[in-house]
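$ run holo --ligand "nicotinamide-adenine-dinucleotide" --emit tokens
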Amino acid sequence: MDTIGVGLIGTGYMGKCHALAWTGVKAVFGDKPAVRRVALCEVEESLARRRADEFGFETSTSDWRSLVANPEVDVVSITTPNAWHAPMAVAALEAGKHVWCEKPMAPALADAERMAAAARVSGRVAILGYNYIQSPAIRYVAKLLERRAIGPVTHFRIEMDEDYMADAEAPFSWKSEKSAGYGALDDFAVHPTSLVSTLFGLPAEAFGEMRKPYPDRPDGASRRPVENFDVATVLLRMPNGASGAIQVSRCAWGRKGRLQLQIFGAKGAILFDQERFNEVSVYLAQGSAEDQGFRTVLMGPAHPPYERFIVAPGHQMGFNDLKIIEAHELLNRITGKPSLAIDFDTGLAIERVIHAAARSATDGRWVATA
Ligand SMILES: NC(=O)c1ccc[n+]([C@@H]2O[C@H](COP(=O)([O-])OP(=O)(O)OC[C@H]3O[C@@H](n4cnc5c(N)ncnc54)[C@H](O)[C@@H]3O)[C@@H](O)[C@H]2O)c1
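-- output --
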């Protein structure tokens, strides 16, 4: 396959990230296939046309079904609100397209199951936008764990905090609708769970708690009740006896993109924070006590695929680079090469953890994730 045709549905925050990824992937990684940006879809014709010009897509439409049916499109990027993921992904797979769908899979478990089944039947590649697993820092953490640098992992904590909804007067958006899911669980907790799944394997049981800091938000001239939960906590029991905790908030003033991972082992600890994107801290409980302390490793050309972006150490990578790596992993999978990506089957397992946590928050008991 020399060239692959891309269709993009949705051009908001994530849509632009996918567009940049499709634009950059060939230049960064240099291998085949080349990417042809064929078609772009938005809710409204003039917006679709404008975005197609900006993002370098050949054609535009306001009808996502026509994009999915376009014979020139081989792979569909879905970056629309959560409630659209299932109908769009299933239709794309049924039309024989590969799919790159943003997280979460779908607010309803039955829809996520439908998506995974459609992917299996189609034989096409379908992955989810779990970009944080692509970070050179996280890949380095995985390597440290593989070589048991901190001994067996006993417990871990992951916090994901942002403040984009911290203001009680922030306007109501689709993210506060029930149709978007449980709230912070679908919006954020799926990301920490993707890290758990990648670094440690899937948890066996979850215990959840969800809270709504503000009951309503401005919606035009009136106020509208908030329909889901902006703050959530999930405790995890791992099959091997280790334990974990995930805490997420969309209302954490001062936290802009904090995804902090702390891993504790029998012989040390590892720390990573998305706000310090290019750093991993390692504590090894060895040698003289007076010399012990966290050592910070700056990501650079020795931490793949950093070197693909820039040969110079100390020059730093950023969020959009993760999407370029993710696009490359998708292309690797499509062309039958080894690939690190969360497909719809693993994505479904992540959804089961989220639904177990939500069920637990209602029932007040531990809930099995399988
Ligand atoms: N991977 C990540 O780190 C990450 C970060 C943010 C958002 N997301 C996910 O990306 C998705 C989109 O979130 P966002 O923040 O970009 O939202 P957004 O509101 O900024 O953008 C959504 C876009 O989709 C368009 N759209 C809606 N319905 C459509 C339809 N039927 N046809 C065509 N276009 C349609 C909207 O007009 C809008 O431009 C969500 O599922 C979200 O969870 C992922």
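-- notes --
The two ends are 38 Å apart (CA to CA).
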